[in-house]
Amino acid sequence: MSLRPMGLPPVPEQTVRVARAAFPQGSLAIRVRDRLGEVFTDEPFAEAFGVRGAPGLSPGMLSLVTVLQFAENLTDRQAAAMAIRAIDWKYALGLELTDTGFDHSVLPRFRARLVGNGMERVVFDRLLEYCVDAGLVAAGGKQRTDSTHVVSAVRDLNRLELAGESVRAALEALSVAAPDWLARAVDVPEFAHRYGPRVDSWKLPGSKVKRDQLSQVYGQDALRLCRAVWSPDAPAWLREIGAVDIMRQVLVQTYTVRTSSRGKEVVSKREADEDGVPPGHLRLASPYDTDARWSAKGDDLFWLGYKVHLTESCDNTPPEAEAEAEAEVRGRPNLITDVTTTLSTVPDVKATAPIQQQLADRGLPPAEHYLDSGYPSAELIETARSRGTVVVTPVLLDRSAQAKSHAGYDKSAFRIDWKARRVRCPQGNTSTGWHPVRQRERDAIVVEFAKTDCQACPVRPECTSARRGNRMLTLYPEHLHTVLAAARAEQKTKTWKDKYALRAGVEGTINRARVCTANGGTRLIVSTGVRQ
Asked: Half-sphere exposure of 149 toward its Cβ, with a 13 Å CA cutoff?
């Protein structure tokens, strides 16, 4: 398929007359075409298409269809039908009233082509550039970020179903790629009987004994198939088939292979307490989406999928324009400035630096970045400040047992002499150890007090319950300790609390994005390739 850059065609005169008559007040599709038509061009997509072959549909037009489809929460079939029967869509796409549109299968193929070429953010970036040029968003303002869950479009499988379905997916791939080799490697009729229908399309055995037997069969079949693929006489390229490698990973994560006392090989399902299971960020949950992960938030939210972080402007007035009329400031919309998708198991703090770097790369670093308590760390706060961004966030408080109970001596009760590298406790005793260490890939300082001092201390129960009998403190390096202490003191003031209330507005944006109700309000949300 080739590309002949044309962009959106001019709107035919008859389409203009009918659309204006049918929608005298306009519609979302009409407004997008009139105000943002120049965003949807073909040139940015050129690298995803060849130079030979029949020309395909305009990627600029298909990207506009995708945006409208997301905004109106339509399926591919419904979106394709709208391009045929909806007058305002025909206006937006520049089609004649008699145009018969396109087949709905074009849309998933177009999205797959974008993802395969790393172009899922093209329209978003172009729209953001347009908004910057129009003065709707600028560097130096206020921005806020929050995350929400994204459910993957795959079935929820338990470990037994996952094991069986991974074998079935590998067999399907091998039957297409190397049918003759597969016929020699396995008993095709037996495997076809066992893995013909999807594993989740029939009811699993009710008794635990039968389920365990079925699980063992799946494990034995997976092991047999892996050994056949990795045998010396098998074509090496079979090992590069994605479904085969997924089956191998599921086999390793789900089963153990042992030799019994009689010398017989035994394949059995892993037990978490005895054999251990992979951590959540590595554990596969579907043979068809290897990035989807099970995750939990709080006590009542569990999902299989991803996590998406949305950043939006919440005060687009740059510092040098603060004297402008308040009415003009209120007239500016809040705009999405960044969308970052991660695995569902990635903590929010790991996304903070990439988000701020992406904003800086676009020339939109905020003067104030509003975040919840899951995003900051002492290092991130200091790094952002060195780049001109103040992170407005409730930093994590002291998590020691004394601080949590509000009944003992937490870190704030100790006096630190950084130059002398000593710490004095509330009872006047001086530390005997100062040990710079690396903890979780971070610099830290472990401070130790003498056992003799602590054991004889009259307030020892309020200070430590350590088995060793003495109090120990873990401190950040001096510059980071100072940053955290200042932030913790500031967030206790009413001025800071009133200021931080601005962050709550991003939750409304996330709710609108989740339910896809962008209906011409003050926020403009553009799909950026997040899996759904």
From this structure: 18
What digits encode the pLDDT tens for the residues 488-501?
A: 889 989 999 999 99
C-alpha 276/C-alpha 271 separation (Å) is 6
Q: Rounded to the nearest 5°, which phi and psi values hold at 38? A: -70, -10
Bridge partner residues of 415 (DSSP): 424
How far CA 531 is from CA of 15, 221, 282, 464, in Å, comes to 34, 32, 19, 48
Q: Which amino acid is at 373?
A: S
The phi-psi region of residue 226 (left if phi > 0; otherwise alpha if psi is between -120 and 50; otherwise beta) is alpha
Q: Decide if 394 contacts 491 (C-beta within 8 A).
A: yes
- Of the chain, the percentage scoring pLDDT greater than 90 comes to 61
Determine the average pLDDT of the residues in 318-338. 60
Contacts of 298 (CB under 8 A, 6+ apart): none
Q: Could you give the CA distance from residue 402 to residue 390 in angstroms, rounded to a whole number?
A: 30
Give me the DSSP letters along 484-516.
HHHHHHHTTSHHHHHHHGGGGHHHHHHHHHHHT
- Of 189, 192, 187, 253, the C-alpha closest to 224 is 187
For residue 474, count other CB atoms closer than 10 A to its CB.
13
The least confident of 54-58, 62-66, 117-121, 259-263 is 54-58
Mean pLDDT of 106-125: 91
pLDDT digits (tens, 9 = 90+) for 65-115: 999 998 898 999 999 999 999 999 999 999 999 999 999 999 999 999 898
Count Cα atoms within 13 angstroms, Cβ side, for 25: 1
User: What CA–CA distance (Å, rounded) separates 61 from 83?
Assistant: 11
The backbone torsions φ and ψ at residue 61, rounded to the nearest 5 degrees and listed phi first, read -65, -45
Tell me the whole-structure pTM to 2 decimals: 0.84
Q: Between the CA of residue 309 and those of 121, 289, 342, 351, 527, what are the distances in Å?
A: 14, 20, 8, 8, 13
